């Protein structure tokens, strides 16, 4: 059994795909905690509906958040932390103590960095008339979207695509790629 902690700031569709894969026995893992910096994140509701403990970050300062989370996570078995639409920079102590991965909705290094999340990414891809977009799974370091790449999946950008239609295609690819990678991680126990 692989012990996961998921950090999410928003709707939690990626979290839901992990929950679903576990429930269908496609993934031999357990989510021990869902952490959010947003007390109104629907991801917290998804976690509660699945019987998963939740935690809302109390601090705003990045260094204080880092200390707070390291203290909180000492109470859990943690094999891997997954950032699933989590919009805060991760602190040094977390990076030093845990293996952390992030899923990003573009083919990094393109369209990454501060402010490049969600529809901002898809709009930028459309504006730049890119032939492909996609999803990148990468290790987390102390800079937005700059950690070593684990896996990428390309998604063709069609002429008629809008940011919204591209978002749907990328999200679908993102969930498939993440579940496949988590299966590999659970076999290898990083």
Give a brief outline of the structure.
The protein is an alpha/beta fold and 190 residues long. The protein is 38% helix and 22% strand. A 7-stranded mixed β-sheet has the order 3-2-1-4-5-6-7, covered by helices on one side.
Please explain how this structure is put together:
It contains 6 helices and 7 strands, in the order βαβαβαβαβαββα. The chain is of the alpha/beta class. The chain has one domain (2-107, 136-152, 169-188): Rossmann fold. β4, α4 and β5 form a beta-alpha-beta unit. α1 crosses α6 and α5 (118-127) packs across α6. The two termini are 13 Å apart. The mean pLDDT is 95.
Beta strand %: 15-25%
CATH class: Alpha Beta
Spell out the helices and strands N to C: EHEHEHEHEHEEH
Looking at CATH, the homologous superfamily is Formyl transferase, N-terminal domain
Structural class: alpha/beta
Number of helical runs? 6
Q: What summary fits the major beta sheet?
A: 7 strands, mixed
Radius of gyration using CA atoms only? 16 Å
Characterize the overall form. Answer: globular
| Residues in helices, as a percent range | 25-40%
Uncertain residue ranges: none
Strands ordered across the widest β-sheet: 3-2-1-4-5-6-7
The number of distinct structural domains comes to 1
CATH topology: Rossmann fold
Overall mean pLDDT: 95
E-strand count: 7
CATH architecture annotation? 3-Layer(aba) Sandwich
Distance N to C terminus: 13 Å
Give the helix/strand layout.
Blueprint: E1 2-7, H1 13-23, E2 29-36, H2 42-49, E3 54-56, H3 62-73, E4 80-83, H4 92-97, E5 100-104, H5 118-127, E6 132-139, E7 149-156, H6 163-188
Parallel strand pairs: 1-2, 1-4, 2-3, 4-5
Antiparallel strand pairs: 5-6, 6-7
Helix pairs in contact: 1-6, 5-6
